[in-house]
Structures are given as C-alpha cells and as structure tokens.
Amino acid sequence: MTTLIDGKAVAKKVNQATQVEVAKLVERGIQPGIVVIIVGADPASQIYVRNKNRKAEKLGMHSIVRELPETTTQAELLSIIAEYNVDPSIHGILVQSPLPKQINEPLITLAIDPRKDVDGFHPTNIGKLLTNFPGHYPVANTPRGIMTMLAAYDIDPAGKTAVVIGRSTIVGKPMAALLTNANATVTIAHSRTKDLKAVARTADILVVATGIAHLITGADLKPGATVIDVGMDRDANGKLVGDVDFDSAQGIAGAITPVPGGVGPMTIATLMQTTVELAKWSDLGE
Ligand SMILES: Nc1nc(=O)c2c([nH]1)NC[C@@H]1CN(c3ccc(C(=O)N[C@@H](CCC(=O)O)C(=O)O)cc3)C=[N+]21
Predict the structure, then answer these.
(1) Which of 67, 97, 113 is where one domain is finished?
(2) Binding site membership of 227 for ligand 1 (Cβ less than 6 Å)
(3) Cα 8 to ligand 1 centre (Å)
(4) Which residue, by CA, sits nearest to atom 18 of ligand 1?
C-alpha cells in the first residue's frame, strides 16, 4: 500500500499555526510584512505571486506585490531592494524567479538584507544551513516544507539513504543540506549523473526536482521508498504533472506526494511561516 502524502492538509495545519502567530505579533504591535517583487509578465509567475499575496492577507499579514516592467535595470532593482531593506513594515523580501536576462540574479540575492531573506537564498543563510549553524536563520521554503511533510508522516531521515535529483540553489542543494543535517546519507544526482535511474533505485527517500515531466517511474524506485515530487510540469495536454509518474509509482512507493496538492501548497505555507519568524526575530534583535 502506498501512503498519499497530503501536502494540502499539512499546509493547512501550518497555516493555522501561522495565523495564531500573526495574531500574537499584531497584539504586540508588529504586523508581519512581505513584499514580493516580480519583474516582467511571465504568466506562471503572476499566478504564484497572486496566490502568495492572497494567502498572506488571509493570515492577517501585510503583503505588497511590487510589479516592475520587463525592462527594469539591475540598478533600478537594486535601489528598490535597498528601499525595502530599511522599511520597518517589511520583514520578508522575495524577488520572484526567473528574472529577465539583463538582471544578474546572484547579485540581487546578495543585496537583500539576510535578515529579510525570506527565500533563504543569501550566501550568509546558505552558509548557515551548510554549517548547521546554531540560532535562527531563514531556509529555502520548498525544502523546508518537504522536511515538515516528512515529519508530519513520521518519516525520519536519520540513517536512511536519500537521493536528491536536481542541484538548484532553490531546491536541490538546500534539500541535500537539510537531509544531511537530519542524518540521512545523501546523494545529489543531476543531468550529468551516469545511470540516474540506478542511483534513484538506491533511495529510501527520493526527492525529484528536475522540471522533466514523468522522468521517474515506478520501475526506478526501491520498493517502499518515500517519493517527493517537486516537479511542476505540463504534459502534452497542458495538464499540471510532476517529475514522477504517479500512476506507475502506486503500489511500489511506500509514500508519495501528488502534483498538484503536494510540495506546492507546502512551499507557500512555509513561506508564510518564514515571514512570521523573520518578523519575530527582528523584534528580538536576532
Ligand atoms: N524567489 C522565488 N521563490 C519561490 O519560492 C519561487 C520562485 N521564486 N519562482 C517560482 C517558484 C515556483 N513556486 C511555486 C510555489 C507554489 C506552487 C503551488 O502552490 N502549486 C500548486 C498548484 C498550482 C497550480 O495549479 O498551478 C500545487 O502544487 O498544488 C507552485 C510553485 C515558488 N517559486
């Protein structure tokens, strides 16, 4: 039997806890605030940004969407970030990816105050994650949300073999770091990995974040494996599908996340959780 890991249900619980935390902070005169900066009019990005804004408002947070034209220069974007870095009503700054080609994304990441880096992409925060640094710091929300889902289903990575397919700054690398910190034995596989499917078959926990629809099928899984599908792909009919062929994984995987309704809702819920934490830590001077 394969357990369905219901990301939507876990996200709902996280959101309920966040709403309580927001109310507590508001009571103390702090309304957690997030700004999402979007450059250009990529339709998929616009949908995600709208969803984040709606969720933040629903939870009682202060939420700004800053829409900038496709032609925005590096200098203009840097000056807008500088503005929010010193804005006391904003605790989290998120610059939606992808950015137009005239913008140097790593330099934008570097310009965000690490204390307001709600994505956890700033090298300071990545460094803290890699060193399993004591104290508080933001961690990328998709991998962090995955760890929350695993915990919700009592899946402890300690001593397990984990394989992460994908080596992005947004998912693969922080995912591997979190699993390592949780005492899994971790392999990062990617587009240049030889015999990727044989590597996948070694995994007790398999996280797939490639952007290739149905790359992994049931035949590529160790029986009983936990399968986390980070994919947000479109099939030939334009339907939203994952990097894992859900149907063939049924009966082989021990547990699996669906797309939609798995990692996506957890990412948004964790983003809200992180924003509230940043507001709380800023008040503590941490
Ligand atoms: N700086 C930055 N940070 C991000 O976190 C970031 C980003 N840029 N750029 C784009 C990606 C993508 N992303 C998603 C979040 C939630 C869903 C989500 O809620 N998905 C729903 C379904 C959505 C649908 O039906 O289209 C689900 O899986 O159930 C999807 C995608 C965050 N991203």
Answers:
(1) 113
(2) no
(3) 13
(4) 264
The complex's ipTM works out to 0.95
Query: Which token pair is 157?
Result: 């990575």
* 119 catalytic per annotation: yes
Inside any domain, residue 90: yes
Please state the pTM of the whole predicted model: 0.97
Tell whether 252 and 186 lie within a shared domain.
Answer: yes
Per-residue pLDDT of the chain (286 residues; tens, 9 = 90+): 999 999 999 999 999 999 999 999 999 999 999 999 999 988 888 888 999 999 999 999 999 999 999 999 999 999 999 999 999 999 999 999 999 999 999 999 999 999 999 999 999 999 999 999 999 999 999 999 999 999 999 999 999 999 999 999 999 999 999 999 999 999 999 999 999 999 999 999 999 999 999 999 999 999 999 999 999 999 999 999 999 999 999 999 999 999 999 999 999 999 999 999 999 999 777 6
State the distance from the centre of ligand 1 to the C-alpha of 195, rounded, in angstroms: 29
The secondary structure element, H or E, covering residue 36 is: strand 33-39
Distance, in Å, from the CA atom of 45 to the CA atom of 23, rounded to the nearest integer, reads 29
Rounded to 5 degrees, φ, ψ at 150 are -60, -45
Q: Is 102 among the residues known to form the active site?
A: no
9 in any annotated domain: no
Number of domains observed in the structure of the chain? 2
Q: Which residues span the domain enclosing 99?
A: 29-113
